[in-house]
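Input (structure):
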């Protein structure tokens, strides 16, 4: 079963078909059936502008996105699950939640996660590019795998809207599709701000960090450049980040090293040099990259690649 930008619907009894379909509509993942009963599932997906929507019915199974499946070329998606039926456990960033019908949870595709359908479940999954959410993407980042009840009129409106979109093909491209995608993103933001704990009264810190994440690959990214982009002084930039214990230059360095480490651990990129991978993340002078990785994670570049080969998909954390 192949999911295209248009509507697709089919019942499957082969886990490989569901894995392929879900990987197409969301991001590469592995699915393992659980229990003794024969496994069946159905996936219906559509793409509206840059927003992906899938309605999934599935028997008990475990869905994992392991480090080995994550590539630097993957789109950075924020995914939201609206659970309609069954029981679902979600784990990411050391947090784990058990969802009941009516709950919503957010997680991100750029880091490993695990979903466990504990019973036969039905849900709507929405994938939104992180850049489309602006500062709200950082709100999700701080609350990944945190289940939030959505038994409100807003949830009913969103749930009905999403169900309709996966039942009837709509405009998936062109100006109409983009307008509909914008409306969907606005509804998602409204739901996020309604159910998740609010950010600081001044959301500038969120906007700054979201901006930095979107520009990590730019070698010109610096404290001074970020301050200019937000029309504030460097001194004020440091002030708004101080309550979080964040030094921006160190924050940028850490996130770049995390992505370099991720790519070094990817067997598909084994033929690329450390310098090439570092340059992809804005580090043009790779002379000290291996030393920096050792200081940050306890592993040199060679260590990361060796461990990735030995363990296939996992790298010891530093």
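Output (sequence):
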């Amino acid at each position: 079963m192949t999911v295209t930008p248009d509507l697709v619907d089919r019942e499957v009894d082969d886990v490989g078909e569901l894995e392929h379909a879900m990987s197409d509509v969301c991001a590469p993942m592995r699915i393992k059936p659980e229990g003794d009963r024969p496994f069946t599932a159905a996936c219906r997906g559509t793409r509206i502008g840059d927003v992906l929507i899938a309605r999934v019915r599935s028997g008990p199974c475990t869905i994992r996105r392991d480090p080995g499946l994550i590539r630097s070329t993957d789109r950075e998606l924020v995914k939201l699950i609206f659970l309609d039926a069954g029981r679902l456990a979600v784990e990411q960033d050391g947090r784990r939640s058990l969802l009941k019908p009516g709950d919503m949870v957010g997680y991100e595709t750029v880091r490993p996660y695990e979903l466990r359908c504990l019973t036969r479940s039905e849900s709507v999954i929405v994938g939104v590019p992180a850049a489309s959410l602006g500062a709200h993407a950082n709100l999700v980042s701080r609350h990944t795998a945190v289940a939030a009840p959505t038994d409100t009129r807003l949830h009913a409106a969103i749930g009905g809207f999403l169900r309709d979109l996966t039942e009837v093909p709509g405009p998936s491209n062109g100006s109409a599709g983009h307008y509909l995608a914008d409306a969907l993103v606005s509804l998602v933001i409204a739901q996020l701000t309604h159910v998740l704990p609010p950010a600081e009264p001044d959301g500038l810190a969120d906007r700054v960090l979201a901006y930095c994440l979107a520009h990590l690959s730019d070698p010109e990214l610096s404290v001074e450049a970020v301050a200019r982009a937000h029309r504030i002084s460097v001194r004020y930039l440091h002030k708004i980040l101080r309550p979080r214990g964040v030094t921006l230059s160190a924050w940028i360095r850490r996130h770049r090293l995390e992505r370099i480490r991720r790519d070094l651990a990817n067997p598909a990129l084994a033929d690329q040099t450390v310098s090439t991978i570092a340059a992809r993340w804005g580090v043009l002078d790779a002379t000290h990259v291996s030393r920096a990785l050792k200081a940050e994670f306890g592993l040199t570049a060679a260590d990361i690649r060796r461990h990735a080969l030995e363990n296939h998909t996992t790298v010891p954390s530093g």
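Notes: The chain is about 40% helix and 20% strand. The chain has two domains: 8-195, 204-311.
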